[in-house]
Input
Amino acid sequence: MNAALDTIWRGRIFYLFVLPFAALTILFGVWPILLSIQVSFTASATALRPNPTYVGFANYFTVFADPIFLASLWRTLVYTALSVLANLAFALAFAVLLDSTLIKRGNLFFRLAIFLPVVTPDVAGYVVWRWLYDRSFGALNALLKMLGLPAFSGLSSADTAMLSLLIAELWHHAGFYMIIFLANLAIRDKALEEAAHIDGATTWQRWRYVILPQLRPALVINTVYALIQFLKTFTVVVVMTKGGPNDQTNFVTYYAYQLFDQGRYGEATAMATILFAIVITISMSAFLIGEKGAKR
Output
């Protein structure tokens, strides 16, 4: 009897602590999303009125017939794929380096130096990067000129604008993924590596069959988080390029923002809803694939 009461009270205490956070999530997370989806089914001219005019899927048909949106969607997916690969590869490589015995002195310094950009305000960091890329007085081109190398077009060229954003975001986000990898490396079973080494496994074989399988949780978490992060890329575009040059960095989030600013609320929220569905689908797929691979 006492055991049953104890179990009941533990459950109640658990829900008592969870309830405030659940309420905040619903109020500031779920509810605005539902309102946004609702607006996507209304006429833009009446979207903000108490009794809006509902137009069904008309806004979605308009959006999918818009070549600028389709181009921005494709651009967003390409940028996300490149950013996820670059950030996770860089973070994993640096985590392995810091976890090894190659860097003994200054290990803490390097960890802090790479993680510091993560807690740097987005706008401040990207303003500095915009100055670094400036062709007239930017530090990057000044350095290239001193070395006798050709100037880097940076944000002024359609060929290098996306690459420039990718590098800036790599600087800003990679430290977070590195910390996750380092935490996973710290709790791995090193006895398995020693056993593989004794059995004659090469360095690559130890990495492929011993270490990487143990890093699967970190890989799954980082992949899902990075997919969400880069599919909704916005701040770096607002600060550095405003979608240019020639719309080469006009991603879905920024294009939806432009339409919203023009009062085209129905189309803007339709784009946001489509992107939200893509984010959920891709993130859940990546998570399920990672979980399925872990059970093998």
About this structure: The mean pLDDT is 88. The chain has one domain: 61-295.
